[in-house]
Inverse folding.
């Protein structure tokens, strides 16, 4: 929207050079004020917030953004934090973990008799391990012991490969790397 300050004056005043000069000088300041008002309105909504607005949301929610995060990633983090509402149920926990790790990226087991919650993050989602730890710390009640770990490759994952195929990798790689198929191993070895 192209708003000219001089157009807000009565037509009789617009023709004076002094008034035109004043309006031209003040136009820049008024445009900055209008933009500031627009940004203030946008900053009230996370989906439209500017970088300044997102940093204010992060400060309120005590989120420390990573230096490499884009504005969209920071928005997503703030929206995720705002979506965490009490009461926390297993359904909410599953929804949050699915959002962080993907459909098959985690396993959750609750032992109610011992007040223990075990969460395993799949190797394919281990980049989100710290985020899962922070999520659990925030939403799991204090009387429940949290056990968080990585879901390493096990026999069920490895039985599809032959001994010869696996011999091209170290024990560490077999245990800690994502092994989806024989094609993946073949690509690594060739």
């Amino acid at each position: 929207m192209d708003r000219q300050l001089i157009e807000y004056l009565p037509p009789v005043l617009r023709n004076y050079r002094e008034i035109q000069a004043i309006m031209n000088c003040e136009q820049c300041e008024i445009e900055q004020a209008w933009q500031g008002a627009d940004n203030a309105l946008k900053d009230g909504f996370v989906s439209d917030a500017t970088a300044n607005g997102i940093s204010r949301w992060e400060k309120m929610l005590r989120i420390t953004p990573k230096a490499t995060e884009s504005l969209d990633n920071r928005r997503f983090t703030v929206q995720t934090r705002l979506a965490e509402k009490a009461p926390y149920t297993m359904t909410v926990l599953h929804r949050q973990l699915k959002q962080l790790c993907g459909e098959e990226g985690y396993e959750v087991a609750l032992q109610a008799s011992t007040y223990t919650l075990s969460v395993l993050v799949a190797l394919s989602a281990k980049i989100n391990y710290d985020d899962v730890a922070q999520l659990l710390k925030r939403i799991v009640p204090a009387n429940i012991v949290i056990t968080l770990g990585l879901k390493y490759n096990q026999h069920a994952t490895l039985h599809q490969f032959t001994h010869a195929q696996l011999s091209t990798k170290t024990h560490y790689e077999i245990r800690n790397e994502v092994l989806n198929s024989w094609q993946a191993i073949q690509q690594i070895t060739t």
Observations:
- The first strand starts at residue 106 and ends at 111.
- The radius of gyration is 28 Å.
